[in-house]
Amino acid sequence: MALWQYSIYIVSNSDIEGKTVDENILLKAKGWEKSNISFDIKKLIERILPKTSSWSQSIDLWGKEDSTCVEMFLGNTDNVELIHIRLDFRERHSKQIINTIIELVKLLNASIISNYKIIENNEQSILIDMSKSPAFKFVSNPDSFFNDLGDTDSKNQ
Questions:
Q1: Minimal CA–CA distance to 67: which of 86, 81, 80?
Q2: Alpha-carbon gap, residue 131 to 119, rounded angstroms
Q3: pLDDT digits (tens, 9 = 90+) for 29-51
């Protein structure tokens, strides 16, 4: 992931119920059986990004990996394990992207995970999380971003 990308995951609520949200949630997500999904995920995503070639047979990709993209991780069986969304803060984004994320989360009975925190599935919560992200800080003021990294290093010594 690039410094200018804001990253979130869409994870099935059944994968996170009663569990601590950590990297194991993402690594062990069982997701959704495709046969149990009552809408065409691909058509919904294609409203905002074009389908592109992925580096992996187990990942469906829309958009560009080094820019704004959606990665759908597919399991060994006929299921979608989780969805990873990266937004390129160097580009202007329409509210359609946020609204599509919100719609996708609702339809999948899922949650949004950002930096191992569950984010409420509404526009305001997503925008607040975006504004607090390292990607936002990097794009807004790269010098300050790197200066703060240096300050963190000196405090840890």
A1: 86
A2: 13
A3: 888 887 677 678 889 999 999 99
